[in-house]
């Protein structure tokens, strides 16, 4: 999360400024869109199981709600920072706009490590987060969701606390809930599958058959696991994955020349996406340093962990055979690295397009909750495929027509839509 010398908010603003210049945005629109409309900082006192009280720091940023209620996840991470949350809320605004769903961008976080908290302590933390901000979020204002190290159970505790505070049922307050408790079928797969839907379309446009490709993946959480599942179903081969090892406080890359076996790796993976290194080696996996994922002889790189993972220092380690970078994480590639990828002709599917499947399915969950009518999984995934494919093709056509880098084209579409909504409302 917090990398020395790296500020994700400055990176998000730098990306925005570049497109604002391209669009010749007026000064008022620039000022409005390059920072959050609102942000909240609060302390959350939690009684621990041993009777002591610990105070955690919580955040929520609402970047822009001109196109609809804010939408965005809540992260639990020991290195969470307000600048990370600011950046992510901005990226969520562009993400909702690029797939053309009627929502704005928000993001939340708590500085904590769930590994060190019991289930009851995590529940108290979730309820405390909601109590701290219950008047400033809700189904018509700001809709949270799971993110790094949060899950459907956390969302259900938060929903229950929100409904207790307000004395009514609000199933549309939060998404990513368990199926059967207002959650949507297909939500678990949505981000990873959505990424592969855009990757499939990119390969088609590039004239490359999926079956002839190989990939290296950074991360082994929800996004990476489902991206690997669908990519291999389509015929691709994943050569390596990297993940964080909690016991060693280090990351490792696990590689198999014949390709990884998702099912066998899942059997030795903890709930945070950490792979048991001794069991992996017993299964024939080679264990390499964590950063080795970027140096593999693959056609496709899928960064699906955290921000600032492809940067000015390591971008030169990417092998000449890499044709596509599909960004499953938020902000994994810095502007400096983008320039190198652009010069080398690497096709980049930008984060807020590639990983928009999660928020798209969250929107579907909201719609289903508001209707109190839930769709079968096949229908959810079909709608997701349609949305992601349409969004990719719109960005690709603009990039081709105006000879833009894919990230710039995606930004042009998103920022134009949000700036237009602000103007239509008379804000600027």
Describe the structure.
By secondary structure, this protein is α/β, with parallel strands linked by helices. It has 2 domains: 36-169, Rossmann fold (3-Layer(aba) Sandwich); 188-354, Rossmann fold (3-Layer(aba) Sandwich). It contains 14 helices and 12 strands. A 7-stranded mixed beta sheet has the order 9-8-7-6-10-11-12. Strand 6, helix 7 and strand 7 form a beta-alpha-beta unit. It is globular. The model has no long low-confidence stretch (mean pLDDT 95).
Shape: globular
As laid out across the biggest beta sheet, the strand order is 9-8-7-6-10-11-12
At the first level of CATH, the class of the largest domain is Alpha Beta
Q: Spans with pLDDT under 50 lasting ≥5 residues?
A: none
Tell me the CATH superfamily of the largest domain: NAD(P)-binding Rossmann-like Domain
What is the strand content?
15-25%
Number of strands: 12
Structural class: alpha/beta
CATH topology of the largest domain: Rossmann fold
Major β-sheet profile = 7 strands, mixed
Structure annotation, total helices: 14
Radius of gyration: 21 Å
Overall mean confidence score, pLDDT: 95
Task: State the end-to-end distance.
Answer: 34 Å
**What CATH architecture of the largest domain would you give?**
3-Layer(aba) Sandwich
Counted up, domains total 2
Structure, briefly:
44% of the residues lie in helices and 18% in strands. The chain is built from 14 helices and twelve strands.
List the defining traits of the structure above:
globular, 2 domains, seven-stranded mixed beta sheet, 44% helix, 428 residues, five-stranded mixed beta sheet, Rossmann fold, alpha/beta
């Amino acid at each position: 999360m917090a990398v020395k010398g790296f500020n994700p908010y400055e990176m998000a603003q730098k990306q925005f400024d570049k497109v604002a210049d391209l669009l010749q945005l007026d000064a008022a629109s620039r000022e409005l869109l390059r920072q959050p409309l609102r942000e909240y900082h609060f302390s959350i006192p939690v009684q621990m199981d041993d009777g002591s009280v610990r105070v955690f720091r919580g955040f929520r940023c609402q970047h822009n709600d001109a196109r609809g209620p804010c939408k965005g996840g809540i992260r639990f991470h020991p290195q969470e920072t307000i600048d990370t949350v600011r950046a992510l809320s901005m990226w969520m605004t562009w993400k909702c706009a690029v797939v053309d769903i009627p929502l704005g961008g928000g993001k939340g976080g708590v500085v904590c490590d769930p590994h060190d908290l019991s289930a009851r302590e995590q529940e108290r933390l979730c309820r405390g987060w909601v109590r701290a901000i219950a008047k400033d979020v809700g189904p018509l204002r700001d809709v949270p969701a799971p993110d790094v190290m949060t899950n459907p159970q956390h969302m259900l505790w938060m929903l229950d606390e929100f409904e207790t505070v307000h004395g009514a049922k609000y199933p549309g307050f939060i998404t990513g809930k368990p199926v059967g408790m207002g959650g949507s079928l297909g939500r678990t797969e949505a981000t990873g599958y959505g990424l592969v839907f855009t990757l499939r379309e990119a390969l088609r446009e590039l004239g490359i058959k999926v079956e002839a490709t190989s990939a290296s993946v950074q991360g082994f959480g929800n996004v990476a696991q489902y991206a690997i599942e669908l990519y291999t179903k389509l015929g691709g081969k994943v050569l390596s994955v990297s993940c964080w090892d909690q016991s060693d406080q280090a990351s490792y890359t696990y590689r198999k020349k014949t390709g990884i076996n998702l099912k066998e790796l899942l059997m030795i993976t903890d709930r945070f996406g950490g792979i048991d290194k001794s069991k992996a080696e017993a299964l024939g996996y080679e264990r390499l340093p964590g950063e080795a994922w970027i140096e593999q002889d693959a056609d496709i790189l899928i960064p699906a962990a955290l921000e600032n993972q492809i940067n000015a220092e390591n971008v030169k380690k990417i092998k000449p055979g890499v044709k596509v970078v599909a960004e499953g994480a938020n902000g994994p590639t810095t502007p400096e690295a983008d320039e190198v990828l652009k010069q080398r002709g690497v096709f980049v599917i930008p984060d807020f397009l590639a990983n928009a499947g999660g928020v798209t399915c969250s929107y579907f969950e909201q719609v289903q909750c508001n209707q109190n009518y839930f769709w079968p999984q096949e229908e959810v995934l079909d709608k997701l495929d349609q949305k992601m494919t349409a969004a990719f093709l719109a960005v690709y056509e603009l990039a081709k027509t105006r000879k833009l880098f894919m990230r710039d084209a995606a930004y042009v579409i998103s920022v134009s839509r949000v700036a237009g909504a602000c103007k239509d409302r008379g804000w600027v």
